[in-house]
Amino acid sequence: MAPKQQTNWQLYKNQEDLINPAMTSWVEENNSLMKRLNDEKQPIVLRVVSEEMCHHTETELNQENIEGNLRKIFLTGSTDIVFAESFFSKAVIEKFKKFGKLENEPLGKFLFSDTNIKKHETYVASYLLDNENYQGRKCIYSYAGSKFSVIEVFLFND
Q1: Residue 32's domain spans which residues?
Q2: At 43, which CATH number?
């Protein structure tokens, strides 16, 4: 079951914006999350929950009912460690076809190696799963000028 968003996204400025300041380094991470989890937590596998072309609204991108690829995954070790969701509009997919169907490939493989991808702002929100609050972040990226979003919910509190 996916975590449920509890608060609206707010632009991240500093650790005072977080539900748990101990999560600062995770929210500010600018490298492969999967690599860091493998190095610091435990061996991680990527489990796809769903990936489909659909209509989606991205308030932070001023996109309403835009067609694109919505992928939901868990990064899993002995338990689910991170829930992630990415959305690529058709405009992004036209520029980078792979974003139309990532399947089991880690998104970080592309985010941190392709010079056409630029990171912009980060937003934070609180999520709830099994009566526990967790920190979520939404990063806005662009590929050759077309923006997309990546949400990660950290299912731990350190």
Answers
A1: 4-154
A2: 3.40.1410.10
Is residue 157 pLDDT above 90, yes or no? no
Question: Residue 63 has which token pair?
Answer: 């996109």
Length of the chain: 158
Cα-Cα-Cα-Cα dihedral sign, residues 92, 102, 27, 1: positive
The 10 Å CB-count burial string (b at 16+, else e) for 16-41 is ebbbbeebbebbeeeebbbeebeeee
Question: DSSP code of 105?
Answer: S
User: Could you tell me if 48 and 71 are in contact, meaning their C-beta atoms sit under 8 angstroms apart?
Assistant: yes
**Contact call for residues 3 and 134 (beta carbons, < 8 A):** yes
d(CA 145, CA 42): 36
Each residue's pLDDT tens digit, 40-99: 888 999 999 999 999 998 888 888 889 999 999 999 999 999 999 999 999 999 999 999
